[in-house]
Amino acid sequence: MSRLQIYIVTAPGLEEVTARELAKLDMKVIDLGIGGLTCSVTWSQLMLAHLHLRTATRVLVRLGRFEASGFGDLKAGMGDIPLHEWLPRHSALNINVSASGSRLTHTDAIEERVREVVRRTYDPALAYEGGVHTMHVRIARNVATVSLDATGDPLYQRGWRTEAGAAPMRETLAAALLQWSGAAAHKGVLTDPCCGAGTLMVEAAQMARKIPAGRNRAFAFEQWRPVDAAQNAKLRAAAEADVRPPLKKPHHASDLSADMVEVARANAERAGVSDDITFSVADAISAAKDAAVVTNPPYGERMTAKGIKALYAGLGTAAKLAVIAPASGLPAFKREFDATLATSNGGLAVRFAQVAFSP
């Protein structure tokens, strides 16, 4: 197990953004799919990926891949996986099953056969000394792929955003917009005039200071048996040693709601970047004028159609603009965007769009 084959889950549309992150970590992508990427990594690289990837949702480690045309094949293939070499004793196993285009289609029956082999139960009401781990069994075209979830809680749960507004965006999506648009490389001040919980500017400040995305949390694989805890501790310490001093020119976050500004301020403090962002209660259009703006403005039912048009037109006056909005809303900015990218935010189809930044 010196090298691991991993599958990195991303939001559809962000695969190439995540691939560029992996390249910066000297990790080579084997296959670029829809909603994920396959890589071959060392154990140290698995830790580095969890510490530093900002746009990925989770990482799965492949345990086995075999023909599964029937339940006999399934049980035989599962029996060849030395699960006892991976998971600690007294640990529980949650099994996630999916099946498509195969003879085996009944997911409950598949899980039952898998449990007959692995012999690890899971009762959510109980505590387990070795932790609770998740196995993914995916059967497609009569081929079973078995993986362990290395991440645990999804990677967008950084640990600092304990408060959010009515329509929060995931931290991974915020980081992806910053990276894709080129705003992350901007040398001056970035402004979010619709800051909400402050997610975009917190991500921007952490990226500028090289604060690891996974700084304040643990990962499921750290409990696995092959893991070298001392090596992981060294990698965490090295990541901390690389953190840069506070920004000389802080980014700026503002919102019409004083309550949301206080939420954003508290989140920034927990994220360790309270000195890297200035906060204010301000009108979004005034705050955006001639600024380098990165924002996730209201859309859907959060404002009237007339109000959204006025807001978007005002945001369009920014000197530089990177934004998340529905495709139908982009014309309201009255800007000719340099590039757009299709993805989703909370299940809603949206577009990244940028003008005047340099990706």
CATH topology of the largest domain: Rossmann fold
Mean pLDDT value: 95
Looking across the biggest beta sheet, what order are the strands in? 2-3-1-4-7-6-5
Structural class by secondary-structure content: alpha/beta
In the CATH hierarchy, what is the class of the largest domain?
Alpha Beta
Largest sheet: 7 strands, mixed
Tally of discrete structural domains: 2
Order of helices and strands: EHEEHEHEHEEHEHHEHEHEHEEE
Q: What is the percent of helical residues?
A: 25-40%
Low-confidence stretches: none
So what's the overall shape?
A: globular
Q: Examine the secondary-structure arrangement and name the CATH architecture of the largest domain.
A: 3-Layer(aba) Sandwich
Report the radius of gyration as a whole number of Å.
22 Å
Number of helical elements: 10
How would you sum up this structure, described in words?
The strands form 3 sheets. A 7-stranded mixed beta sheet has the order 2-3-1-4-7-6-5. It has a 4-stranded mixed beta sheet with strand order 11-12-14-13, with helices on one face. Helix 3 packs parallel to helix 4 and helix 5 packs across helix 6. The relative contact order is 0.13. It is of the alpha/beta class and 359 residues long. The protein is globular and about 65 Å long. A hairpin with a 2-residue loop joins strand 6 and strand 7. The protein has 10 helices and 14 strands. The chain folds into 2 domains: 147 residues, VC0802-like (2-Layer Sandwich), CATH 3.30.2130; 150 residues, Rossmann fold (3-Layer(aba) Sandwich).
